[in-house]
Amino acid sequence: MIEITIEPETLAKALKRHQRAGGAFKGASIKGGKGRFWGYLCEEIVLQYLGDEAVLKDTFDYDLIYKGYKFDVKGKSHPGKPQKYWDVSVDASCRNQKNDAYIFVRVVGPKANESKSFIENYEYKTAYILGCCSREDFYESARFYTKGEKDLGNGHIYKEDVWVMKIKELDNFMELKEIT
Predict the structure, then answer these.
(1) CA 13 to chain centre
(2) How far apart are CA 50 and CA 44, in angstroms?
(3) Paired residues of 77 in beta bridges
(4) Region 105-127: what's the mean pLDDT?
(5) Taking the CB of residue 166, how many other CB atoms lie within 10 A of it?
(6) Which of 96, 123, 99 is nearest to 109 (CA)?
């Protein structure tokens, strides 16, 4: 897990992308479009960390290309530092994406029950790149939950069909920078 200080220009790029998208995808979002800002912010955080070798693509299938690999960034917001026993997830609707791997990011920030304005104007300072996982390994290792199913380990009731694994099961993101 890598702690990242969010640069002001990273936050500004994410907000600009979010505002440019307007109402797009709002009906397709579990959080009514609020999560889209966090998604953009998490993508920009990964780009900030990886540097110029990473190229934003922003397609349905993947978000960026790094050293020839197609990555989809999955991000969420939570008020505290993530713990290794917490979950990461990929919505079942993403199962047929044509990406090579997932990168999971958590932004330290408000929960989704806050207003859109509050979420957009929050002073984001810290994020964590939790790890990564090849698409193939993710679907071999992750557990599938159906909408309405309760996770007996943490009591969470899923709002959509989703694939879930623990942060501690992810590959070390630092190794990603080493691939050639």
Answers:
(1) 16
(2) 10
(3) 107
(4) 75
(5) 16
(6) 123
**What is the spatial distance between Cα 106 and Cα 38, in angstroms, rounded to a whole number?**
9
Could you give the CA distance from residue 130 to residue 48 in angstroms, rounded to a whole number? 15
pLDDT tier for residue 101 given thresholds of 50, 70 and 90: very high
DSSP 34-48: HHHHHHHHHHHHHHH
Q: Is 136 exposed, middle or buried (0-12, 13-18, 19+ CB in 10 A)?
A: exposed
| Cα–Cα distance for residue pair 142/153, rounded to 1 Å | 14
Q: In whole angstroms, what is the distance from residue 136 CA to residue 40 CA?
A: 24
User: What is d(CA 52, CA 120) in angstroms, rounded to the nearest whole number?
Assistant: 26
Average pLDDT for residues 17-28, to the nearest whole number?
63
Sign of CA dihedral 20, 25, 26, 29: negative
The residue-averaged pLDDT of 22-50 equals 71
Q: How many CB atoms lie within 10 A of CB 120?
A: 14
CA–CA dist 130, 4 (Å, integer)? 11
| Residue 102 to residue 121: CA distance in whole angstroms | 27
State the CB neighbour count (10 A cutoff) for residue 17.
Answer: 18
Nearest to 154 by CA among 73, 83, 79: 83
Q: In angstroms, rounded to a whole number, what is the distance separating the alpha carbons of residues 71 and 157?
A: 28
- Between residues 70 and 33, the one the model is more confident about: 70
pLDDT recorded at residue 93: 87
